[in-house]
Amino acid sequence: MIFEGKIDIGVPPEKAWDFLIDVNRFSSCLPGLEKVTQLDERTFDGVLGATVGPISGKFMFRSTIVESIPPKELVVRTEGTDSVTKSIMNVKMTVALTEPVANRTELGYHANVEIKGRLAILGDMVLRATAVLLLEEFSRRLRTLLEENESKVS
């Protein structure tokens, strides 16, 4: 499955970048994230609780920054396994930050998500609907945290 979109954020790209690469701040935007541990500057392990259709489980995952061009582009690969179904998830996500107008960031994302196992049997529509809801909540939290912080600084 491919997910693409843009998130408009009312801060300059440098501030958005600093937020994205700070795992403790960034992780607060991820719905269902139960735990995240930074292993080194580019690698993180975590646990994500999720419900997809009738199945609830926990994905144990490892995310690795495979490419980084500050403050413009970030490529992250994530691999994980669901504790209940043993389904496997592989994600390659590219995030591009641009500044269409002064002091505003357009965060473009392109994610290629592959799921193998019992979760994949649920079908594209159920998985896609769940992912869209998670992306909407992530976007809302990201804008809220970054823009509230920016207004306190200004």
What report would you give on this structure?
This protein is of the alpha+beta class. Helix content is 31%, strand content 48%. The protein is built from 4 helices and 7 strands; from the N terminus they run βααββββββαα. The chain has a 7-stranded antiparallel beta sheet with strand order 1-7-6-5-4-3-2. β4 and β5 form a beta hairpin. The radius of gyration is 16 Å and the shape is globular. 16% of the residues are buried.
Secondary-structure blueprint:
Blueprint: E1 2-9, H1 13-20, H2 23-27, E2 33-40, E3 43-52, E4 55-69, E5 73-82, E6 88-98, E7 105-116, H3 118-121, H4 124-153
Antiparallel strand pairs: 1-7, 2-3, 3-4, 4-5, 5-6, 6-7
Number of helices: 4
Spans of at least 5 consecutive residues with low confidence: none
Mean pLDDT across residues: 91
Q: In angstroms, what separates the terminal alpha carbons? A: 40 Å
Question: How big a fraction of the residues is strand?
Answer: over 45%
- Read across the widest sheet, the strand sequence of neighbours is 1-7-6-5-4-3-2
Helix content: 25-40%
Number of strands: 7
Q: Which shape, going by the Cα principal axes?
A: globular
The largest β sheet comes out as: 7 strands, antiparallel
Q: H/E order of the elements?
A: EHHEEEEEEHH
Structural class: alpha+beta
What is the CA-based Rg, rounded? 16 Å
